[in-house]
């Protein structure tokens, strides 16, 4: 039987183009934090149709939540509502989706944040 992992998908769109420097400062720091976080198996980002997406894979939902609520990511979340809109989707699975699947899941299942 395959191991079950927790997959987190985000997609954010800037409200105004001039928010880009703030967004990228937070995004870069958050991605570095994710890649170094305990329980993170992988973390990647892509821009699809003007939306900045992340795909991260974790050993568990608890590991992802530990990352989510501290450090650079916590600071990014505090800034988010001012500069962007977006949706998130997380789920447990034995099969990590590829980028086309990630985008479909985000469109179909994502919850507004």
From TrEMBL:
InterPro entries: Dimeric_a/b-barrel. It comes from the Bacteria. This is DUF3291 domain-containing protein. It comes from Octadecabacter antarcticus 307.
């Amino acid at each position: 039987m395959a191991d079950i992992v927790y997959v987190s998908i985000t997609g954010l769109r800037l409200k105004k183009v001039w928010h880009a420097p703030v967004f990228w400062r937070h995004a870069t720091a958050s991605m570095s934090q994710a890649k170094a976080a305990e329980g993170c198996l992988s973390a990647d980002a892509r821009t699809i149709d003007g939306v900045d997406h992340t795909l991260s894979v974790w050993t568990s939902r608890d590991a992802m939540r530990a990352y989510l609520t501290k450090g650079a990511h916590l600071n990014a979340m505090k800034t988010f509502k001012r500069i962007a809109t977006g949706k998130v989707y997380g789920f447990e699975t034995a099969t990590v989706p590829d980028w086309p699947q990630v985008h479909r899941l985000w469109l179909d299942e994502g919850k507004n944040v």
